[in-house]
Structure prediction request, 265 residues.
Amino acid sequence: MKLRPCIDIHNGKVKQIVGSSLVDDGDMARENYVSSKDAAFYSNMYRELGLSGGHVILLNAVDSPYYEMTKQQAIGALMANPGLLQVGGGITADNAQEFIEAGASHVIVTSYVFKNGKISYTNLKKLLKAVGKERIVLDLSCKAKNDKDVHVQGASYYIVTDRWQKMSDVRLCNETLEELSNYCDEFLVHAADVEGKQNGIEEKVVKVLADWGKIPITYAGGVGKISDIEKLKKLGKGKLDVTIGSALDIFGGHLVMNDVIAACD
Prediction:
C-alpha cells in the first residue's frame, strides 16, 4: 500500500476541509486547516519525500469567482514537478489536455462523466479521445443511502458528483467497477461521509473496492490514527493505496508524515 499525497485547493488556498460541508453557494466549507504555503511548496515536498501518484483537487466550481485563483495554484503545483501529480476538479474533454500539458500525469473526472445521475458514455468517449485511457482516473467518491433494490440489505454507496453535493443513481459495486475500468487507468474513491473527520475509515466502502481490486485504486476518508492505516491495509487486502489529509502534521494534524509513510509500506 502506498501513500498517495494530496493538495486540496479552495478559494485559491491550500486547505483541508470536511468534505460533506462543501457548498458551492458562497464557496463555503468547514475548514480543518488553511495553509500559508502555496501548492507548489507541497508538490516539491512530496517529490523530496519520494511520494508520487497523488492528486491536486480544485474545490471551486468553474463558475466561482475564486476558480481562476484556484486553477493557478493547481497549475503551479503541476509545473513544479511534471508527471508527479494527478489533477481533478472541473475536468472535461475540452480542458483535460491543458492540464496534461501543464504537467499532470492523469486527469481525475467525476461530474463530467456522471450527468443527471447517470453515466454519460458520450462524455466518457470524448474524454478517451482527448487524452487516452492511460491518462484518466475516474473519481467514484460516494455516500451511503438506503438502497431501493429489495435484494440489497441496508445502505449501499452511491457515487456523488459536483464536489460531493449531488447523489447519482450509480451504485458502487463490482458491476460498476468492472464496467468503468474499461475507460480509465485508476479509480479514486473518497468516502465522503467520513472525509476530513478523522473518525475512522468507511469499512464497507473499503471491502467493496478490495473485493474487486483489478486496477489501482486509491481510498480516501476518515484516517485519523496509525491503526486506521493498519485496518485499511488488512481490509484492503493489499490492493488499495491511501490518501490522508487533515490528520497529517503538514496540514495541522497529529500524524507525523514519516510515520505514516512507514506504516503504509
User: Anything to note?
Assistant: The longest helix spans residues 67-80. The domain at 6-264 is CATH 3.20.20.70 (TIM Barrel). The longest strand covers residues 155-161. The chain has a mean pLDDT of 91.
